[in-house]
Amino acid sequence: MQILISEFMDQRAVAQLQAHHDVVYDPTLVDDRPRLLAAAQTCDALIVRNLTQVRDELLAALGQCKVIGRLGVGLDNIDVPGCDAKGMMVIPATGANALSVAEYVITSAMLLLRGAYTSTADVASGKWPRKALSTGRETAGKVIGIVGFGSIGRTTARLAQGLGMQAIAFDAMLDADMPVFRETGVKYVGLQELIMQADVVTLHVPLVDATRGLFDAKCIASMKSRAILINTSRGHIVDLTAVAASLRKGHLGGAAIDVFDTEPLGANVELLNCPNLLLTPHISGVSAESNERVSFLIAEKVLEALH
User: Fold this and answer.
1) In the predicted model, what is the mean pLDDT of residues 41-50?
2) Which of 46, 76, 190, 199 is least surrounded, with the fewest CB atoms within 10 Å of its CB?
């Protein structure tokens, strides 16, 4: 059988697949639509990350494919109902990158709350901005509001609690009396209550109709003054124009954005020189360790599905 891999994967996991099947591993295929469509016609399994759009032409080209392996957890780049209709199993790497994302969230929160890590050039040039950087905030005692309480949200809560933060959460798919809240020591609250109470709001929800445009200008304005907003979930959930405006006005205390409506983002004048803004290229879930976990998990699951 043939396995097609269109984006980067841990080489040892690729070798594990090669020991059992014919493998076409070419991370550049995601950017070469004609070659990708041609290769898709003969594959029995397709492994992708978030850039390969498994829908429309590509979905139609998958004439004999049995399984789609997703090197990550978000499925908005995959037409899951379309795959189901063709009898193709879709396998996400649930939980394998949770720690990487959670560490990104906590690191971003600490950086933005403290606000003391942008002075290297000044200090090295002989300036001494001690007074300006003496109003940073400690992490302990702050409230972290987690929107979406799956494996990533729960791991984030655990790390935050270890730093002395109080964790509250909202998840539209969970009821307040679910055992997970009692077991984790996380208080369940309504979304509006979370937005108004949290010093740090972190988003871990899929992109669906209910979450599209969720954090718009009105929602951001209702956040606690100087709160931090972190989005590692999906673009289209947060209005970046509203984020930039709120940061410039001083209402938001900081924002870390790892996902965008269009990726790569492209030049964006609104975001240039915006204060207290961290932008990263969709890497919160990608670390050396998480790539290894995600790759081996999907390799094993794909082999099981093919056998």
Assistant:
1) 96
2) 190
Report which residue type is found at 257: I
The whole model's pTM is what? Answer: 0.92
Alpha-carbon 220 to chain mean position:
20
Mean pLDDT value across the chain: 96
First and final C-alpha spacing in the chain: 10
Integer Cα distance of 204 and 166 in angstroms: 18
Candidates 3.30.565.10, 1.10.287.3510, 1.10.10.60, 3.40.50.720; correct CATH number of 2-94+288-306? 3.40.50.720
Instruction: Give me the CATH code for the 98-279 domain, please.
Output: 3.40.50.720
Question: Residues 109, 133: contact at Cβ < 8 Å?
Answer: no
Two tokens, residue 240:
């970046």
Active site residues: 234, 263, 282
Helical spans, DSSP H, in 30-97: 33-40, 56-61, 80-85
